[in-house]
Each structure stands twice: as structure tokens, then as C-alpha cells.
Amino acid sequence: MVRKHSITHDYRLVPAAAAVWATAVAGLFLSWQAAVLTGLAAGAIGLAAWRRAWWTRTCAIALLISGPVAAAWVGSNVLRAETHPLRLAADEGRTTTLTVELTTRPKGIRAAGFGGHQAGVDHVVITAKANGAKLVLLAPADKWRNLLPGQRVTARGTLAPPRGGDLTSAVLRVRGPPTDPRPPPIWQSWADHLRDGLKEASEVLDAEEAGLLPALVVGDTDQMVPRIVDEFRTAGLAHLLAVSGANLAIVCGAVYLVAKRLRAGPRTAAAAAMAALVWFVVLAGPEPSVLRAAVMGAVTLLALVLGRRRSTLPSLATAILLLVLVDPALGGDPGFALSVVATAALVLVAPKWSRALKERGVPSGLAEAIVVPTAASLATAPLVAGLSGQVSLVAIVANLVAGPVVAPATVLGVAAAAVAPLWDPAAELVVHVAGPAVTWLIQVGRQAATVPGASVRWPEGWLGAIALTVVVATVVLLLRLKKTRTLVVAVLVGVFVVLVPLKVVAPAWPPDGWKVITCDVGQGDALVLATDDADRAVVVDTGPDPGAVDRCLKTLGIKRIPLVVLTHLHADHVQGLSAVLTGRAVGAVAVGPLKEPAWAWKEVGQQARSRGVRVVEPKAGERFAWPGLEVEVLGPRRPPTAGDTNTTVNDYSLVLKAHTRAGRVLLTGDVELAGQSALLGERDLGAEVLKVPHHGSRYSVPAFLKAVRPRVALVSVGTGNRYGHPSPHVMDMLRAGGALVLRTDRDGDLAVLPGNRIVRRRRGWSGSGCTTRATRFPVARPGLRGPCGRRTTRRRHGRTTSSNPISVTTSAKHSKTAPEPSPTRRRLRTCCHRPRPPNRRRRTTSSRSTCSTTNCGSCRTTGTTTTTTC
């Protein structure tokens, strides 16, 4: 028996679209030969289908033609990119000067600076064309951020090989500003003027709302607060931050409805909607993702105008064919894949689920509201998991709650951009009207992200995507069967009831007696050194996100910070400073000798002055002391040189050695090859714990790692970061040296405790809950000489015996209500402290004598006091 109102689709162009897409993927990720073979194989299948009448004639002919065409076109494009002279020059790392034509707007590598200001973006990525090749430019933000697509400029820099997965021939690491810039096309200048008007009008809102509105309208996330971006990702709302078919459908749909209300005919209304689509593409910028969304939005609009649901799937297949053949690089674009899968789910699955709900008495509007986010979220979940390594369990509910305000916020944002060039007060008024909707979205994302078990960690890559596809397909299939539906629902509810309390009542954190904690703040550094006072600690670097470091310090109960050390001024080490300085008594902020980049130095000074905190510049050889903690500055010892390149700034990182009750900790900032080589002259680099330089990048000197010889190597790194950190080679070197390597992206927060213990705070199933696991880190091999000639620890009868680390007891007590005073800086001459044998006496003199161990076992000079243990 056939159900009434059954929905049928025309699949004739689907095999051809799938063949073209598969050919592009094979060429981009394998080789041009693989593309040719894939396309020819598709053509052969089409020929066989035509001869044996497997499918309809149209389906077979479309596959027969598209397969060989895709093989020739994709194969030739991939071969051209791989053999272009610029690719050969990139393999050799040549420095060159090129005249390029920009094809996209500059995109900031970092989403925001202090408090969400654009100053935090220190480099931008731009795609360009030069000599028939596609390039990616990595350029300084302050000199390149205002350029527009279509401009021709001259750039000088060093070529590097691309990562693959697209048709890029080389990456150009630009040095200096662009030269000989030509004016952009007039329509690009006009679009830029509209975008600037929207951003200026949005400034009447709070910082979070002002950054989100341009992202909703035109996908401009440069002004967004990083915390909002993270919360949207966890909540499954990140798709709202990119221009997609939904944006275009909202704008074009609004124009179409207005035209119909004005009694325009169907064709006139459709023409008005198409004009709005073109205008919106100009506003958002002619980038590949925008063009993709425009074509798919046009497909949806055409289907709605003609009232022919059956034409939707062929139109989607046609869009795939045209887009991938015009630009084969789209075949490897994750955004393209997400858009296609989501659209296919809305076309194929959503109508059936909506009809099923209506048959069960659910109102039509509510059924559509439930089905659309559910179908899109389930369909895209495997791709999102493969890309991000996590699955949002609150995405469906979050999108359901956020959905009603997305369209009003988008339409009002577009209206504000349209009227901003004409009258600023009118644009600001429209933005004020949009404000409550934007605030609602922020609150939905924030509340959803803080739900226990909001996100589940999942294996990244193709295997993770395939595994989740199997899981989703199995659950959906079992839910369709009446015999298993009740059982599946009961199992899902049981898992939720069991797991959520585990996330709410998580194991205690921090562990008792912690001395060092590496906070998991993403792609950046933030480390906390404990003193003997429970609420007082030293903070070294503040990470890229104020929210992350603030949560870490609140969890630790830190209220007094005598010293905040910023090893260098890159955004992933200083952006969280505002949060650290807020609500806590801070004594001083320490910075290195190189005050670059200039924007960061300016912001650090402003943040400190606004809170009455001194900024100090410690020198190599200085020490800072508190009860239970002593911090020694090892470098840099060289005077700073001109230039603000990443490498120069990294090499002038402050390098510290902390003496804690859990052992010695070497804090290296982001020092690279030159900085590490300069430190090799230090008499004592040895440390039980090493904060691995530069997030474990490949720029590590083997001799430096050997000189430190750590038992534990802590790597502060973000999940799925674009830099490829940490380097597998460096991790292998550390393990070969006997170190236990721990990473924040895999192990979460890391705590070092006395007694050779490490406690990891893994996120486990979710990002909000946690599990803890204690690990005893390896003990150095017996018989080897440690610093100052002391032998390393030995194991006796299964126990570890070692000398106590240095213990500092010099510091004044401070009131909890008074501001934390800056630390006392002193120069100390220290010998190694050995355990004092019984029957030895301690002799203290108050003279300016120098430390001598001729007749005694150890000695220490502090100011005018010499303490000698005999």
C-alpha cells in the first residue's frame, strides 16, 4: 500500500555529481594519476550502464560524459599545480619577489586580540594568483589587512611547500609591506565600505554582541571574542559564523516575501530575490565558500519559486557538477562537503521526518523546527567529528532554541549594512533592534556549552568520521524498527542518566599538594606555579583566551598573584592577561627585552596601568622568591635586535627555571633554534620537568633537549591546530631521552606533585566533565651525574629516594585585602642543596663573606647573610 503524499526524487544526475566529486578528491589528496583513473572508471561504469540498461538513459549518459571530462580537467589542474615553477622553488625554500593578484580578503590567523579588538591579529592569510599559479600569502596583519580582492601588489618573501588538499602551488611567507599596490575594482571598494559601516554601527553594542553581528551577516569573525567562538563550537552553532546557504536563503526569502506583499508577480519577486542574492555575494565577498553558498542558495530559491520539490535534488547535483568542474579545489574543501551533506539531508530526510511527526499530531511549524536542525546535525556530525575531534551532544537542542532569532538578526544586520553609508544613526538604530536577538544567541551558546557532557571527544580523521557514520546510521535504523525502538530509547536514556552525573560530580581538582599546573587553554601557554600559600601562585603566560585561563585560576582558587610572567608578546601567550588581572591581587607583570609586536606591548601596558599593576623587565641572573618557590631568569642574555618576525620574537622569550617542592621546572616560552643554542652556555639547564619550547614545534635543538634531560615533558598545544604542533620528531627525541611526554590536547590540565607524580585532568567523554589519572613519572637512570655533580635518584626495594628540591623561605606576609606587592628581586649565589646528614651543624654569619664549601658540605649567600651547612 502506497502512502498518501509520498515524496519521490529524481536521482538521474546524482551518480554524475558523485563521480566528479570523487575524481576531485582523488586528485587533491592522492595524485593526478588517481584523478584520471577515477574519472575514467566512472565513465566506464556509465558506458556499461547505458549498454545493459541498468539505469535510465539520462543517468547513464550523464555519468559517461562527466567521468572522462572530470578526469581530464581535474588531472590537468592537479598536474599544473604540482609541476609549476613556483612549486619547485617552494621545495627549495627560495626567497623571491612576485606580483600577485589577490583573490580573497585577508583573514586573521587569530580571531581577536585583547578584549576582542582586532589588534590581536598579527598575521593574515590571503589567497592570490601569480604567473598562472595559486598562492597562499602569510603576511603581517598591520601592513596587509586593508587590501581587497582584485588588487595587484608586489610581495617579497620566502616560498614554502603547501600542505596539500587543494590546488595551491606554494605558500609565500611575506616580509614587509606590499609595494606598488593598484586600486581594487570599484565594486570591491563599495562592498568594503558597506562592511565597515556594519562594523562601526555594531559598536553601539557590547563587545561580544558587536563581534558576533558581522559574523552572522557576512562571516567576518575578526572582531569576535575567542570565548564566543569556542562556546559556539561546543554548542554546535559554529555554522552561524560562516556565510552559508542559510544566510542567502534568509535574505532572498525576506526580499521575495516583501515583493509578494507588494503584489508583485512570481517572476518579479524571483528577480528581486536574485538581485538580493547577487548584492549579498558582493557584500560578503567573492570567496569560494561564498560562491558555493550562492549557487546552493539559488538552487533552493529556484525550487521554492517554481514550487517543484522534485527539482531540488537535480538542482543540487547540477550545482555540485558546475562548482567542482569550475574549481576542483572545492572538492577538498570541508565547508563545501558540510554544505552539500546538510542540503542533501534537508532535501531527502527532513520531509519524511516532518511528515511522520505531523501524522502523530505534531503541529506543522513545530515539526519543521524540530526536523531541520535534527536532520542537518545528524548528517554533518561525522564530518564535524573527523575535522574537530569532538561531537556536540547539545547541537540539536541549541539550534532548535537559537533558530527563531537567526533570521531576524541576519535581516536586521543586512539592513544596517545597507543604510550605514546613507545615515549612521539609522544604522545604529537598526543594530539596537537586532541587539536582543544577538544577545539571545550568545546566551544560548554559553548555556549549551556549559551543560555537563555538552561535547564528546571523538577520533579525528577519516576513521573517526566513518566510525560515527556507522553509529548514527545504526541508531537511526534501529529507531525506525518498532521491535528495537523502545530498547534503543531506553539505552540512550540510561547512558545519559549514568554519564551526566559522572560529569557533574567529577573527581576533585586540583589534586592536593600540586606544585605546577599546565592549564589546557588551547593553542597557547598558561602555567601556574604554587607557593606555600594556598591562594597565591605565580602565573607564566596567560594563553589565547581570557575565559580559559580565568576558569583555570578559579578552579585552582588563586586570588593573589605576586608575578605574572609574559615570556613574549605573541597573542597565544598574552591574550588572557585581562582575565588574570581582573578580580585578583596582582603584584607585577614581567616582560622580556623585546617589545614586539608593538600592538601587544601597547595593550599589555594599558591593561596593567588601568589596574595599577607595575610592569617590570627582569634580567638574566635575577631571582624571585616566595615561600616554597624560587624563580630564576636564565635568558635571554643577548641584547634585542630589530625586527618583529615570529622567529625573532620567539627567540627572545624569557626563559625561567623554577625551583619548586616537586623539583626543578624549566620554562622556555617559544624559544627556537637560536634561542636554545644561546642557552647551551648555561652551567645548569637540568630540570625534572620541561615545558617544551614552542608547543613542541620542529624548531628544537637536540643538544638543548639532551642538556635539560627532563623526566617529564609538558606540551601545551591545541587540538587540531593548523601549525602541526607538536612535531612527532621532537616528541620521539624526548621519549628517547627517557621523558614522559604529556600533551594538553590529549591529557587536559596537567598537575605536577611531589614524589614524582603527575595527575592528568582528562576531559574524557566531554569537555565540561573530567577524569583524573595519577602517573608516576620516570626516575633518572642511577649513576649519572646531575647538576653540581650530584648523583641522580636510585630505586631501592621498589621505592624512590632523592634529595629534596630547593626550599625557599624568604618572603613577607601580606594581607588578603591589600594589593599583592611585587616580588623582591635579588641576586643569589647558590650551591646545590644536599640532604644534611645527622650530627652536622648549621653555621650562620652576618658578614659579606663569599660562599665557600672548602670545609663544609654546602653554603648559600643571600645579601649579607651566609648560611653554611657543615
From TrEMBL:
UniProt feature, compositional bias: Basic residues: 824-845
**Source species:** Lentzea atacamensis
Task: Provide the organism lineage as a comma list.
Answer: Bacteria, Bacillati, Actinomycetota, Actinomycetes, Pseudonocardiales
Q: Which PANTHER family match?
A: DNA INTERNALIZATION/COMPETENCE PROTEIN COMEC/REC2, RECOMBINATION PROTEIN 2
Question: Which intervals of the chain are annotated as region Disordered?
Answer: 765-870
**What's the protein called, per UniProt?**
Competence protein ComEC
Annotated membrane-spanning segments are 20-47, 237-259, 266-284, 290-306, 313-330, 366-387, 393-417, 461-479, 486-509
Q: How does it sit in the membrane?
A: Multi-pass membrane protein
Where it sits in the cell: the answer is: Cell membrane
**Biased composition annotated in UniProt, kind: Low complexity:** 781-790, 846-870
Q: Which GO terms describe its cellular component?
A: plasma membrane
Point to the regions of Polar residues compositional bias.
Answer: 802-812
Q: Which Pfam families match?
A: Competence, Lactamase_B
Which keywords describe this protein according to UniProt? Cell membrane, Membrane, Transmembrane, Transmembrane helix
Q: Where is the Metallo-beta-lactamase domain?
A: 523-719
Q: Its principal location? A: membrane
- Would you say which domain of life the source belongs to? Bacteria
